[in-house]
Write a structure and sequence with these properties.
This protein is mainly alpha-helical and 298 residues long. The protein has one domain: MetI-like (MetI-like fold, Orthogonal Bundle), CATH 1.10.3720. 66% of the residues lie in helices and 4% in strands. A two-stranded antiparallel ribbon has the order 1-2. Helix 7 packs antiparallel against helix 10. The longest helix has 34 residues.
Length: 298
């Protein structure tokens, strides 16, 4: 049947007439075109900031503010990266500090979050649900709402990495427990019963039997924690000195009071963004699979 097929209708009063019947394929094709246009526009909106940041890192300040802020650079100034990485911007030192703080936070959050989730959801004791709810309520308190008490507690640690690691771990444990809870409740209790019959203790069961099954959930939680800690600025600007300053604070301080090298600042932003992009490209499929697996009951 053709797309514009004709339907013959017979009416006793008006006689017979032919009515063109519109094929539904047109509507389906039109909706598909609109969806493709929307996805292309959304892709452009997502990629444009990355393009602008990269081209900015290869220009000098005069070109950025001289009418060529969006176009390709007239001269590709790769030395901006050397200036930002070396003595000019000290991005290498700031990145090392960020790596130390981030990985220490990931280790502490994963270990404490898993042990808490196991104790709260796999063991039976009085007040279990109350404590679980109380811990999850910690997600309702923003990290920046506790600045004054944190200042009183961490004032003596501002020259060490612990000034950031301690609050980062404390504030990211609730979200870690929440992510792990969707996985750990789906593991059948028969696994632990069989291990108990074989003579396995509670710690051996938790770390040699249950923990390997929780690796996808731990990876998912670690990615969420990484993104929050790597890009955190306020606590890092308050509780760090020059020797332990993180990448976000270091790039912020590349802006001078009277003069700023925006090309080197753009290079620093590109360097700071690369770990996040690499992590997303490598782990995006794992995150999607983990979230789906944690949402399925059975």
């Amino acid at each position: 049947m053709s797309q514009n097929s004709e339907l013959k209708i017979r009416n006793p009063v008006m006689g017979s007439r032919r009515v063109k019947r519109r094929s539904p394929n047109r509507r389906i094709r039109f909706g598909s075109v609109l969806k493709q246009i929307f996805l292309i526009l959304w892709l452009f909106l997502c990629l444009f900031p990355l393009y602008w940041m990269f081209t900015m890192s290869l220009k000098d300040t005069n070109e950025i503010f001289g009418g060529n802020s969006v176009g390709l650079p007239t001269q590709w100034l790769w030395e901006n990266y050397a200036n930002a990485w070396g003595s000019g911007g000290r991005v290498s030192t700031y990145m090392l500090n960020s790596i130390i703080d981030t990985f220490a936070t990931l280790i502490g959050t994963s270990l404490l979050g898993y042990m808490s989730a196991y104790g709260l959801l796999r063991m039976r004791w009085k007040g279990q649900k109350t404590v679980f709810t109380y811990i999850l309520m910690g997600m309702m308190i923003p990290m920046h709402a506790a600045l004054y008490p944190l200042t009183e507690i961490l004032l003596t640690l501002t020259k060490t990495h612990w000034a950031l690691i301690i609050p980062y771990v404390a504030f990211n444990i609730p979200i870690t427990i929440l992510i792990l809870s969707g996985f750990i409740t789906n593991i059948p209790y028969e696994m632990e019963e069989a291990a108990c019959i074989d003579g396995s203790g509670i710690y051996r069961t938790a770390f040699t039997i249950i923990l390997p099954m929780m690796v996808p959930a731990l990876i998912t939680a670690a990615i969420f924690v990484f993104l929050q800690v790597w890009n955190e600025l306020l606590l890092a600007s308050l509780f760090t000195t020059d020797s332990v300053r993180t990448l976000t604070v270091g790039i912020k301080q590349m802006s001078g009071q009277y003069q700023t090298d925006y090309g080197s600042m753009g290079a620093g932003l590109v360097i700071a963004t690369l770990p996040t992009l690499i992590l997303y490209m490598c782990m995006s499929g794992q995150v999607q699979k983990s979230l789906v697996a944690g949402a399925v009951k059975g």
